[in-house]
Specification:
The structure holds two protein chains of two kinds. By secondary structure, chain A is mainly alpha-helical. Chain A contains three helices and no strands. Chain A has one domain. Helix content of chain A is 58%, strand content 0%. Chain A is elongated, with a radius of gyration of 18 Å. Helices cover 70% and strands 1% of the residues of chain B. By secondary structure, chain B is mostly helical. Chain B has a single domain, classed as Sodium/glucose cotransporter. The chains are: A mainly alpha, B mainly alpha. The interface between A and B is large, with 40 and 47 residues.
Chain lengths: 83, 539
């Protein structure tokens, strides 16, 4: 194999990535928790701005998960980063 | 046809001609050695980067469903129609998990379709066939939804009539789509997606800034929409909806979102778009970047409320008894003619791009996993491509059948019907990327039972206006809640898969051979095992 020895992500890293990816499910699927009109934001009922806000948060979470896993993914040498 | 809006229609046609020219020229874009290979015609040469993939997948996933069907659902039912937003968000952690593994294993083994992978992973031709047939079937109502979207725009521009004249513009649009898909393959929608997305972003940003100022602000829009939704529906005598979900609809909301999210990445057209990317990382990056479109989807859904808040728009849409007209009618009333023309072009092109990718994906499935697998094992790459091109035409005819045969009261049901079917391939396809424990026959049995259950349950849903397929939600057995049929069928599917796998393993029923190895699922473009196009041609 021409590659460096695979490096597995640490257990802590795995837990963090798992939380980042599971959180959006927990938020969006607990429907009664956000089925409220108030507080409104710029006229939008809570139901809407809360869910729209979590679009951005989810994107940031997935982006973070990408950065965390990119450095440790097995089979890819770290020094090839950023090519 | 005297009430045709000339300005709108002229601008619509100019954009349409422009895009058609691009579609035919796309054959030459980043051209490989030959277009007569399925990797070239069907996957654009597999070289797309983050940027192109973002546009292609965006063009692929955000369709007439987003611009027409979701706002229509919000217009007709309020908050319950907004579930498409959570769906379009929670799908991406799944893309992040499944996408890179599917990319790697497909590139190591030269898989073009989802069914290629399932067949190789579980060593079962019949399971591969089941996945292929489900994919082709599920694509048809989804393509039909795109046609409904184009139809809605044409109707509002005044292009309507009776008999053949009524369907003629739609048929012309479709014939053009079919022609450039035939000649250019995946390059055509990839190139057109740039135009489509630029137009869509422009229109939406203008719409969500301009229209609320004209309607007295967001607060006023929501208040008027609520008043309108609270009025009793003449057909049922009950309010048509509310601004937030209630005890009756929480379950439907959550299950529709989750069921659709499971479906998103295993749809043949999504996989086609994802496999066309040049590197594994491109998919991971896109999982974080694509939610930008979901933000658009959420704002678009709110256009349904704007249509409700404007009395003349709401009255016109209700008089036509077609909630699909909500967004086009709103644009027609609120924008100057020339900009409404641009907006309609955006919606029309936004429906054509995914329809092209979907028909390519369905025909790849047919060629690789039905034709070559069962009828012509010795087919050459050129013959595969020829068959794929022909089938891409047939699939569109199948979609037309859905358009003509189905009630379009709520076109979102077309997409949800496709979802009911495609989710039943999640155990072999989605979970199969992570585990090889499931037995091939258990997967086949679970799929078969869930397909029958899902189809029958959907068929039996009736309403005041429809005898069958009236909605995609039904009572969930033992729970006494209304939920998305796809998810109920998926749970039944999984129970059968788990129980039968345990039984088959205990009884020592022979298992298929897995041609993949664990390392195949993490290989990247710089890995020597990942084949490039010339090697695949030489195979």
């Amino acid at each position: 194999m021409p590659h460096d020895a695979p490096r597995s992500p640490s257990p802590v890293m795995r837990v963090v990535v798992a939380i980042l990816l599971i959180a959006p499910f927990a938020v969006y699927l607990s429907v009664p928790s956000y089925a409220r009109v108030k507080p409104r934001l710029a006229g939008l009922p809570f139901f809407y701005w809360w869910q729209l806000l979590w679009v951005i948060i989810t994107a940031l979470f997935i982006g973070t998960a990408y950065l965390l896993t990119r450095r440790t993914r097995p089979g890819r040498p770290a020094d090839r980063e950023g090519e | 046809m005297d009430d045709v809006n000339g300005v709108e229609l002229t601008i619509f046609i100019i954009f349409f001609v422009l895009v058609t020219a691009m579609g035919f020229m796309a054959a030459r874009w980043r051209r490989g050695q030959t277009l007569m290979h399925l990797d070239e015609w069907g996957l654009g040469g597999r070289r797309f980067g983050t940027f192109t993939t973002w546009f292609l997948l965006g063009g692929d996933l955000y369709t007439a469903y987003t611009f027409i069907a979701v706002p229509a659902a919000v217009f007709a039912g309020g908050a319950t129609g907004f579930w498409a937003l959570p769906y379009a968000v929670i799908a991406y952690p799944l893309v992040f998990l499944l996408g890179p593994r599917l990319w790697s294993v497909s590139h190591v083994h030269g898989y073009v379709t989802t069914a290629d992978f399932v067949r190789g992973r579980f060593g079962s031709r019949s399971l591969g066939l089941a996945v292929a047939v489900t994919g082709i079937l599920a694509m048809m109502p989804y393509i039909a939804l795109q046609l409904v979207g184009i139809q809605a725009v044409l109707t509002v521009m005044g292009v309507k009539g009776s008999g053949l004249a009524k369907d003629l513009p739609l048929l012309i649009a479709f014939a053009v789509l079919a022609a450039y898909t035939y000649t250019s393959g995946l390059r055509a929608p990839a190139l057109i997606a740039f135009v489509k997305d630029a137009l869509i972003y422009l229109v939406i940003i203008v719409a969500v800034i301009y229209i609320p100022t004209k309607l007295g602000g967001w607060g006023h829009i929501f208040d008027s929409a609520q008043a309108s939704l609270a009025k009793p529906n003449p057909a049922t005598g009950k309010p048509s909806g509310s601004l937030i979900t209630n005890d009756m609809t929480h379950w439907a909301y959550g299950t529709l979102a989750l069921g659709s999210a499971l479906a998103l990445f295993i749809y043949p057209h999504t996989v086609t778009g994802a496999l066309a990317s040049g590197r594994r990382d491109v998919i991971k990056r896109n999982a974080a970047l694509l939610p930008a479109y979901s933000l658009l989807l959420g704002l678009l859904a709110l256009l349904g409320y704007m249509a409700l808040a404007r009395p003349d728009v709401a009255a016109a849409v209700k008089a036509a008894k077609n909630p699909q007209l909500a967004v086009p009618t709103l644009f027609d009333h609120m924008f100057p003619d020339w900009f409404a023309g641009v907006a309609f072009a955006a919606i029309g092109i936004g429906a054509l791009v995914p329809a092209a990718i979907m028909s390519i994906a369905a025909s790849n499935l047919f060629t690789r996993n039905v034709y070559k697998e069962f009828f012509r094992p010795s087919a050459t790459p050129a013959e595969e491509t020829r068959v794929s091109r022909l089938v891409s035409l047939l699939v569109k005819v199948g979609a037309l059948v859905f358009v003509l045969a189905f009630d379009k009261t709520l076109s979102i049901n077309l997409q949800l019907l496709g979802g009911i079917w495609i989710v039943q391939t999640f155990p072999s396809l989605g979970l199969g990327l992570f585990t090889r424990w499931f037995h091939r026959w258990a997967l086949l049995a679970g799929w078969a039972v869930a397909m029958v259950y899902g189809t029958l349950t959907a068929y039996n849903q009736h309403s005041a206006t429809q005898n069958h397929f009236a909605q995609s939600t039904a009572d969930v057995p033992f729970l006494h809640h209304t939920g998305y049929i796809a998810l109920t069928a998926f749970v039944i599917n999984m129970i059968i898969v788990l129980v039968l796998t345990a039984i088959f393993r205990a009884a020592g029923v022979p298992d298929g051979t897995d041609e993949t190895r664990p390392a195949d699922y993490t290989a990247d473009a710089d890995d020597p095992r990942v084949k490039d196009l010339p090697e695949l041609v030489a195979d």
